[in-house]
Amino acid sequence: MSLVVMAAIHVLDFPLFYLVGGAAGPEEGLQIIAERRLLFQIHGVLLLGFLLLMPGVLALYVAMREVNKTYMLMAVTVGLLAAIQVTWISPLVLSEVVLSDGYMAATSEAQQAAYVTATDLVRGTLGSAFFVRFSLLFLHMLVAGLVMRKGIFGRGTAYLSVVGGIVGLAGVLASSVAAATIGLGPSSAALVLAVGFAPIAILPPIWALVVGYGLYGRG
Asked: What pLDDT score does 194 carry?
């Protein structure tokens, strides 16, 4: 059931990300965090829910390893790598609360500019982490889906996983190429990633719900 719980957390946290200024510019984001401090902290903690992917992908490996052990080892490896990233992403996100406090307490434009610059770098780093984390997740979906075609899951689940993985990888890649082509700064590039990913954001929780219930039914 870990995948089902992870899906619920994802659905809750995704709109919260935009509500607390996750897709805003660095200066505007700092101001929004100051206004919605508690919500932002909740968002930062909810990111740890992505760790629930770990028992989910391990359970999927156990269920499917007899079909193709090599592919499932590949799938579980990238899935675990995707999940474990939140152990440092969440603290980095929460560090923006400290930056926001400093920005609001600054007594000069120079001090405020320093906090904005620091936030720009933090959000640029988070944008890169965002790209890697979801690229790994969609790759996991794709590889696991290829194995599911001959396993205990129905063809519908298998093709959902395969198509979701392909569409997700294409969406994340397109957003990254767009940001690089335009030549944006760190946080602006992260913003393009966040906005570009929005249309495909529903794919991971749908996949997690379907596969999670499938695993639970066979447990």
From this structure: 54
Instruction: Give the residue numbers spanning the domain of 45.
Output: 2-218
Q: Is the pLDDT of residue 215 over 90?
A: no
The Cα-based distances of 88 to 73, 155, 177 in angstroms read 24, 36, 25
Task: List pLDDT tens digits, range 67-85.
Answer: 999 999 999 999 999 999 9
**Per-residue model confidence (pLDDT) at position 155:** 85
The pTM of this model reads: 0.87
Chain position carrying tokens 């992260």:
190
Q: If you count them, how many residues does the chain have?
A: 219
pLDDT recorded at residue 180: 60
Tokens of 122: 């933090």
Contact 78, 142 (CB under 8 A): no
**Residue 190 near residue 126 (C-beta atoms within 8 A):** yes
CA-CA distance, 58 to 197, in Å (whole number)?
A: 26
C-alpha distances out from residue 111 to 21, 36, 102, 116, Å:
21, 22, 9, 9
- d(C-alpha 133, C-alpha 50), whole Å: 10
**Number of structural domains, the chain?**
1
